[in-house]
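Data availability (excerpt). The following record was deposited with the supplementary files.
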Amino acid sequence: MKYYNLTFKLILCMLFLIACEEEDKNPFALDDLESAAVLRTLELVNLEVDINDITNSQIAVRVQADDFVNNAQFESVDVFVSFVDTFIDTDGDLTMTDRDDEDISRPDALVRNIAASEFTMDEKGKPVNTITIDAAEAISLLNLEDDLDRVDGGDIFRVRLAIKLNNGLVFTNTNLNGNVTGLFFNSPFRYDASVVCGYPNTFLIGNYEMEIIEGTGPFGIFVNSGNVSITATSGTAREVTLDYLPDAGPFNFALKFNLICGKVIVPEQDSGGGLGCGAGNIQLETESLITAGLFDGDSLDDSSFTIKFNDFTADGGCGGSAYPVELKFTKI
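Predicted structure:
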């Protein structure tokens, strides 16, 4: 068992280092640089829409344009918005008072085109711009005014960007490889703004006793029970540092989760801080709002709550299927 654990650790560490080296390479061939472009994410200014104040909320992200030929071909950026209804109980699993069985999702709508001349130059000579969309504008463009009462916490206003070159080429999230969207260029072209209920930064933080209720996968238990500390990174975002896969590691990483109007949502993220076996990283996320963990947001009681998600939603080439994890937290 000790030999197996050591071998697994070494394989993961070697593959992690190789992956980092690969990320540093240019994702385009040298002879393709005159027909390529990215929009690097500089800052996620705001990706939350307050369900109690939707019309006054704003979505904003700051990006840097790069056409790899000193801005000679950068023409403009198209900004799109869509709406994703994530809380649809088509099977009738919920009570009638909670049930929402109508999908009010909306496809892409063009918000605006931003010309290259509207970008400003940073110290590196790259064009930068803070792209903003008023939630009220998005609601109008998507014809959501009559369905606002059906918008739930956890639903998503999805922003998609497309960079256009003066040679007619367009680049967006659907036609670029993983090196562009990943760590080095950090150019996903797509940003999800969640509908949330705002909470004070002092809510659901501090020391908790964590109990693992469920969670054994291909490399052993997800995490051992024990005392942990939870910190706030925004009004709705929290994180807790865990020792992932103690039987094979452990691998220390910060599990990120969001407080969405009484539900605890774990967004898609790398398990263990970026472990894999040569084909991407192992990932985890909450399957849906219906299967999410719960907390008492109505009375702001943070004495206990649960987190539910699936680990190995992507196996990173390690083999193994997704498995459910449930963690219970009790404030100390």
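Summary of structural features: The chain has three helices and 22 strands.
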